[in-house]
Specification:
The chain is an alpha+beta fold and about 100 residues long. It has helices at about 1-15, 40-45, 90-95, and strands at about 55, 60-65, 70-75. The protein is about 25% helix and about 15% strand.
Length: about 100
């Protein structure tokens, strides 16, 4: 009986360690990013969550968290025309 409770407790701890940590807004806990500039807000398509948008240094483009029915995932922030919004020095714009 004691080993059964120990096994169940261990299972809870192991599975709990696999989940990402989230803050109260549902976003993964990362360092705070600078707010999205007003110029980016003006050209962004309206269906995107600008409150979660941030500039990624890896590609120089803005990304936002899309909360779908099954999962939450990062998607590139796009203009109304569907083009990704990137900084002028990013490889996506210059290449």
């Amino acid at each position: 009986m004691k080993s059964r409770h120990l096994a169940q407790g261990s299972l809870v701890l192991v599975l709990g360690g696999c989940s990402p940590s989230f803050d109260q807004g549902g976003r993964g806990t990362e360092r705070a990013e600078a707010p999205v500039p007003e110029a980016v807000i003006q050209i962004a398509a309206p269906y995107q969550d600008l409150a979660t948008a941030r500039l990624r240094t890896e590609d120089g483009c803005y990304w936002y968290l899309h909360s779908g029915p099954v999962e939450t995932t990062l998607l590139p922030l796009r203009t109304v025309e569907g083009r990704p919004i990137c900084t002028a020095s990013s490889p996506a714009v210059s290449g």
